[in-house]
Amino acid sequence: MKTLYLILLLFILNASLNSQFIRQQISLEGNNIRTFIWNTGVFNQDLRTVNTPGFEWPKGTGKAACYTAGLCIGGYVNNELRLGTASYSGEFRPGYCSNGQFFTDSRFKHFKVKRGDNYITNPDWLNWGLMVPFGAPYVDVNNNGGYDYFVDTPGVRSSSETVFICITDGDSLRHTSSEGFSGGTKPLYSEVHLTAWCYDLTGLTNVQFIRWEIINRSNSRWDSVYFSLTSDVDLGDANDDYTGCDTTRNLLYCYNGDNTDGTGTGVSYGSNPPAFGYILLKGAVRKDVLPYINLNAATLRVWHKSVSFCDRDPNTPNESYNMFKGLKNDGTSWVIPFTSPPVRTKFTYSGDPETIMGWTEYTGRIQNCYDSLTGQLISPSPPGDRRMMLSSGSSQLRMNTGDTQVICIAQLIVRGSSNLNSVTLLKQLAGYVINYYNENIIGIQPISIEVPGNYSLSQNYPNPFNPNTIIRFNIRDSRLTTLRVFDALGGEIATLVNEQLNPGTYEINWDGTNYPSGIYFCRLESKDYSYTIKMVLVK
């Protein structure tokens, strides 16, 4: 069997390179959602026909909640702004970078595996190991720290379906101002390992996860780095949408402006339409200081299509980068209506539309531009075509050559008894997704594979915290290890780890959003080791 695999491997490695880059897509549809992922960094858009949304829910109905999305990267290289954008067509392509040079070959394509696949039924299952050096996830069945063909399981643990692709913005021919989000700069020479997966588990059937591992493969440092999920979010009928954000959950969402979306035919949902959104589960981290600083959401913001003011689609890379930072495209701050003095914000429509508490689209928006904090009040905002952006980064975030950042999001959808009740249910689902992410192996990040001399559990940081904190621990040898959180009365409220991990140093994030202020305890346990730390949540 291994001889057969080696023959296939040699065939793949010696295949001739494509002389012309072809945009391709693959579907992720292991639960109630079908979405399409391009090899250019774009997802939620369907290439099979022209101008077609690609987030279909419920799967098989033809109804869709998003037209397109992608993760954009922005930063300065030797004081020169550079972008790698993915919104409508994408500036990425399959391949990798080394020392500031772009490379590709026939290995670099979409790989997709489903539960139950094997080397006979799915060539991607057979050839998954080609992408393991580039970050493709797998279940280490024999716990030896390496990928073994025909032993280990390709894909994310417990997922019903996993898609992986390694892409880069290193091909200068892909950089164009017509990308859709005003690209066209010189390449950053990023290498991006994109993993998308889903579950068919109860409570997660209307959720998909996407993770990007971004590596600086250039010969220069990136400064003032931002990572921005950009989305043209057409919820059914594109012309009657509203948007909002929930800062406690790092949730950005779209809902219908009234209780009827379009006519209910085609892509539209009719009465009682759903709400759709993105959660930032893991943002960028400043690693140049101790303790590390989790940047989380730098901005949760929206903008409006085809307006004559500075709240419109960007036309230049500088305008795009301003929007990455949470500003309008000319660098003007958003202002919360009816505040005196005017309150600047990077989190638009952060109120609750169902209770009409706080700032919502029903309140309206201020049309301020040219660095002014005043302007005409449009109240309420007319429903229409919206764009959304979820960013993580900072003017202090630097990435040296070889540095890595990880961004992880979930996209989710739910339908309630009305357009506004759908928003309430979406927030509830977001809380469930956050807890699932943080309390399972997905949330564990290996920091070092060097074998520690002892088991240890470090004090969480920051401490006190609100609402997220990082817990670091060392594993000396491969034994079943648990990491659990208890309240002040000793009741277990979260299991963060319950796995046999390989020796090394690990970090995991715990989100206390859904818990009250107070004292909590975190305990690391293995066969011959037990240690507890005290954590203080202050809201």
Number of domains: 2
Radius of gyration: 23 Å
Distance between the termini: 58 Å
Q: Work out the number of β strands.
A: 41
Helix content: under 10%
Low-confidence stretches: 1-19
The helix-and-strand class reads mainly beta
Question: What amount of the residues lies in strands?
Answer: 35-45%
Mean pLDDT: 90
Largest sheet entry:
9 strands, antiparallel
Count the helices. How many? 4
- Identify the overall geometry: globular
Keywords:
539 residues; six-stranded antiparallel beta sheet; 8% helix; nine-stranded antiparallel beta sheet; mainly beta; Immunoglobulin-like
Give a short synopsis of this structure:
With 539 residues, this protein is mainly beta.
Topology (SSEs and partners):
Layout: H1 2-13, E1 25-28, E2 34-38, E3 42-43, E4 45-46, E5 52-53, E6 55-56, E7 64-66, E8 68-77, E9 80-84, E10 93-94, E11 96-98, E12 101-103, E13 111-114, H2 123-126, E14 138-139, E15 153-154, E16 161-168, E17 190-198, E18 207-216, E19 223-232, E20 241-246, E21 251-256, E22 260-261, E23 270-271, E24 275-282, E25 285-286, E26 293-294, E27 299-304, H3 317-324, E28 334-336, E29 343-345, E30 365-367, E31 376-378, E32 386-393, E33 404-414, H4 419-438, E34 444-448, E35 456-457, E36 468-475, E37 480-486, E38 492-500, E39 504-511, E40 518-526, E41 529-537
Antiparallel strand pairs: 1-2, 2-6, 3-8, 4-5, 6-7, 8-9, 8-19, 10-16, 11-12, 13-16, 14-15, 16-17, 17-18, 18-33, 19-32, 20-21, 21-24, 22-23, 24-33, 25-26, 27-32, 28-29, 30-31, 34-39, 35-36, 36-39, 37-38, 37-40, 40-41
